[in-house]
Amino acid sequence: MTIDAQQGPSAFDERPLLSNQNLVNGIESQTVGVHRRPSSNSASSVPFLPSSSLNIVESVVGAITNWISNNRQGQDYSQTSVYTSLLNLIPRTEMSVLGFDHEPSATLLCPECLYTFNAHRKICSPVTLRRIRANYLPNESEVYLFKEWVEDTKRDFARYDAEIGRLRSILKKLEGERAYLQRYADEYRTLLSPIRRLPPEVLTNIATLYCQDQPSVLKKTGVTPPLTIAQTCAVWRALAFNTPSLWSSFHVELGPMSLGSLQLLSTYLKLSGDHPLSVTLVCGRGSNWDDVFLQTLLEHTRRWKHLILHHADLIQNLPSPPDLPILESLELSSQLLRASPIFKSMPWLRTLILDDVEFEDLEEGYFPFTQLTSVTLRRLQMGSALRVLNRCPSLREAVISCRRNFSWSPTVEYNPPIDLRRLTSLTVINELISDFFQNITTPALSSLTIATPAPPHNNMDAWPQEVFVAFLRRSLCPLKRLSLLRVELSDTDLLAILDFTPCLTHLSVMESRADDLPATITNQFLRQLTFPKVFHPSRRPPLPRLELVDFVVHQSEIDYGLVVDLLESRSSEVAKREGYSIVRDVSVRQGNLDKLEFPFIRQDVIPKVEVPLAPIIDRITNRVFALGGSVVTPMFSFVRLLVPGLF
């Protein structure tokens, strides 16, 4: 700013005039944080400025002094006092020009005692950044000034570091006290936890169920379910260590393994105590009969209760057969089954599972077939499957799933058919249904499931209606549950089958038909199951004991009102008087399932609905409510009709 002294008072006519003291006070109030260079010639300090700044000061002081002398005669406005005040102001101006600003700053650290930390806040301005980027070179006086500012900043750093260190020590102490208080609260909260009220027996059952769903694979890496429980807390650790059943089921792979895996196996065998063992044994490449893992397991063969052997041909070549006095279940997979002394030491074997197994011979006495009550045969040739069944007179349950790429051998035929007089449950998953049912008789069969492989293929045989009806007529079995899954048969064929199953209580049908084949579940089929309003002895509907119906059908023209008629007719007084049971549960689903619904197959595919259910439900709701029933309709799933008060 420049002021021309010749302009006179006209330039400031509208501004209030200041006294000398007010001017000095106003100027000095702006000199906070000024750095002064000590003078060797005077006891007082004078602001140190570059020569350019001194020239500005002299010009400004002269102009202001002339103006004051012309406008306020008689007052003390000496040039010396004005000059001194401006000198105190110039360092702040100079620092602003050079890119620094000093502002007093106070941080309140304690609101109780009002303890504050005072420091000057130094702000970098855009001017400084522009000079840095422009490679600005300060002159000699500026270099001295900048060095003094840097030294002053170092002193500020020391003050900040000391205060920060003091506050950090206080913060660390407070955090430690808070952590101690948190632990104090957590301990008492633990004492109030509802789980502490559960008896140990309940906790043991929970732990057992958890370990059953997740097999223990004994490897060096990973934590097995029992170890997870043991690492929870002291109570659960004691529970795990005192529950032998948690450590009695494990999976071992023979071959090159680490010492840690062997130690883990030893821990399982020790903590399982005398509890029967469920062992899954997989023979890898390079394994032999003197494998350290196998030798460790063979020391506990008297406790083997359930055994699964994968690729375990070497088990049959042991120098001395192991003693298996309590073995009840044996599963053999991917190997050649031949006569071996090991199979003679299984007096309690009842369940046998064979998966992709080939037989070298089946001589009598080399395998305890006669004592088996449950057999599952997967990926076997049909001839081998029938030979196994023929040697199992005590069989009660069987699951047969033969390989589709093997055709029936004409040299294997049983006449008379194999008599499975104790068999009560049979599941057949095979396209060679005709070859199977013409060779067996099951007079005690109560549950039958027939399924074709999914997805079906073009080489599948047609449904052998005559062979199957001959099987039912020959067996005269008291069949109570019948499931036909992906079986291509017409509604008339199904009605003919039902004439030979008067004891049937559960009927399940999953359609799998091509467009050129008739449907299985039709309106005519539903009408045949419906009890007539006017009863005549010659028109008795089939299945008088029917209680549950489960249909999975493709897009069709089924009238769901007929399903309600079926419910209503079989709950009438006339039907009850004639000995007909009430149909308690009816499930009708429209869609296409990609997987079979078996207990041993995951049911994770929801039917894709092809017909909107809302209009159907609207039509039948009132009729169902009139029966006192209810309609449950999970979205995109099925229509389900229930008769209340019967469960």
UniProtKB/TrEMBL annotation:
Superkingdom of origin organism: Eukaryota
Protein's name in the database: F-box domain-containing protein
